[in-house]
Amino acid sequence: MLSKFRSVPSICNGLLVHRFINTNPLCTMLHHQDSPQSPELPPWVKFSDTPSSPDTNDDFVIPSLAPWVDAHVFNPHPTKPINQSSMLNNEDGVEAITTLLKKQPYLSFDQVAQALDAHGFQVSAALVQQILKRFSNDLIPVFGFFKWAKSQTGYVHSPELFNCMVDILGKLKRFDLMWDLVKEMAKLDSGYLTLGTMVKVMRRLSKNRKHEEAIEAFRGLEDFGVDKDTKALNLLMDALVKGDSIEHAQNVFLEFKTSISLNSYSFNILIHGWCKVGNFDMARKTMENMKEHGFNPDVFSYTSLIEAHCRDKDFRKVYQVLEEMKGNGCNPNAVTYTTVMLALGKAGQLSEAMELYMKMSSDGIVADAPVYSALIFSLGKAGRLKDACDVFDDMPKQGVVRDVVTYNTMISIACAHSKEETALRLLKEMGEVSCKPKLETYHPLLKMCCKKKRMKVLKFLLAHMFQNDLSPDVGTYCILVHGVCKSGKLDVACSFFEDMVLQGLTPKDSTVKLLVGELESKGMLKEKEHVENLMARVTHKQNAGLV
DNA sequence: CTAGGGTTAG
């Protein structure tokens, strides 16, 4: 153990062409002790002018970040100064409509339309796109707006926007409305309803365990003027596999293999499906079947096998398959190596991950952003913040552009070590390098803020999220409710819970249980009743299939 | 159109 550990630094030194220089601010920050328990506050702490509750640590704001934070907290939707007047109208329109849609809980699509009618909004494709993105979790506002926009004279939704709306309805599990819209598209000009539309339909149905309905959608493709070809079949099988039913995918394969021609993708999708459920026998049988059809197992087939063995942490088998594929003239690529490196890192086998990186390099494979992310993750997991930082810093020097996962990984590491300044700075930098944050980017940050009771920063993050057209999903609310509950802020937990339900999201059982339990133990019976009433409404709506 | 990234809390 110890010898392995000792060997790592030298490997790591060899890895990096440019050694890290200690003056890098990011690195200094990571090593700076944030000292959360220290009674002595660092000299640069700024005291907020808003009074905070004694149980809140809002006062902590890093001076250089404070203006950035304040701008979002106090003005979540600033209108960007734009010179061109046409652009100004659009930007203004988006903000004005956003405000209007958020203003009150609308009870019907028509109510939304009425509210919109009262203003003289000018509709454009860009505006509709922005609103659909912003309100993709809010059925009544988003669909009410979509219908209203459709009826505006001089404006017609593009096929892309119809597809986007179909996808949103599927995401919101309103399959009745989704099908109505699909049928409506079929009646419009050709070019509206395409395979692209039906892929969204099949994916959303599969994801919601409506596998039979997804297969029915495929069967009916020709009625909508879409070909039932190899590509369509593969997309259906892939949707079924991703919707956790390799069995349905296999049945579809058996049913259509004589009428629709197959390609290597068809087999790889099934191999992936069998690997996903850990059925190596069927994965191997499918590989044999693949050969009988004249296709050789390729890097996709083998990487699926390797990934499954990685999940089992069966690295002996992983190395075996690596040898096997090379023996069959199929070389592992960056994806294969990343899969194994990350699994090793997760399993705490950092030096093995590093060795594999070197092996990859000696094979002449150039590291891309995911490879670097896997390295960074492994180093972070092993507590080697400085080295993780070095690798992150090395990326641009090697001509590799950091992507959203690279940032997510770095932010996760920083948050896990309570380096909130670093984490926030990374988020800020993402905006500057136009690497758009995703919901997952915020999750570790939100978790950390809840834990440290940074309510002001929490508020800032939520505003920042919205400005990036991201709205919290069930997972986000889960983190928020659990996080503030554990910090004893039950009132805040209740208001997050209410938001979640009003958004039409279904809280997880564990979330309800935790919140109700906490409220009960604190004797907050009125709040507890409120939560239970909210839950009853959710259940009722679901049973009735209502909006 | 097929394989890689991040992920609550218990």
Automatic annotation (TrEMBL):
Short name of any one Pfam family annotated for the protein: PPR
PPR repeat intervals: 263-297, 298-332, 333-367, 368-402, 403-437, 473-507
Source domain of life: Eukaryota
Domain PROP1-like PPR as annotated: residue spans: 349-515
Record's keyword terms, sorted: Repeat
InterPro entries per the UniProt record, alphabetical: PPR_rpt, PROP1-like_PPR_dom, TPR-like_helical_dom_sf
Gene3D superfamilies in the cross-refs: Tetratricopeptide repeat domain
Record-stated family: Belongs to the PPR family. P subfamily.
Classification via PANTHER family: OS03G0856100 PROTEIN, PENTACOTRIPEPTIDE-REPEAT REGION OF PRORP DOMAIN-CONTAINING PROTEIN
Protein name: PROP1-like PPR domain-containing protein
UniProt source species: Crotalaria pallida (Smooth rattlebox)
